[in-house]
Design goal:
- The longest helix has 18 residues.
- By secondary structure, the protein is an all-alpha fold.
- It has 10 helices and no strands.
- 37% of the residues are buried.
Amino acid sequence: LPGALVRAMAWELYGFPHLAVSQVYAQLQFAADAPSEDLCMALCSLSRFLQLDGRDDKALHMLRFARSKFPYDVDRIWTRTCASVIADLAIRQGRDQLAESLVEVMENIRSPTAPFGAQSSDIAVFRARILVLRDQHVDALAFLDGALQIAKRTGNWMGISYISSLLLRVKRLAGVDPATLLAETKT
């Protein structure tokens, strides 16, 4: 990967998404001759950042642009990002069936280095959010606990913070005693 994308991944990992976006922009602006996979990855990363910033239309537009620019040689990267962006939108719209089918697409597009059956924390979080839509809070807790363990094991500090806050909210929905929640936040 080019240096700008490596720096973007590092900034994202350590919880500085705005610095990550600046590195993605640098990759797009100064590396027009970079391999198509690197440029598509930068565009897909930018799409994810736009979505996290609440700009769904711009995120979808960026994905369409990436697909038109690199129609064949980066299918895995684009498909997984597209599934992630649309699944998030579907969950926020209460469309659990659509979200579930997109999460299955994401699961089928594994990293070539991932062990068979390995689940990423983002997929576990998506599964938990779908279960919350279905009012299956206790089942959602198991996925969030798993996602938190994955994030801790990989050192994804931004993921740990996000998953921990989701875990507390879902525990409240599941009826966990507030005193227990307070004790957990202190540890």
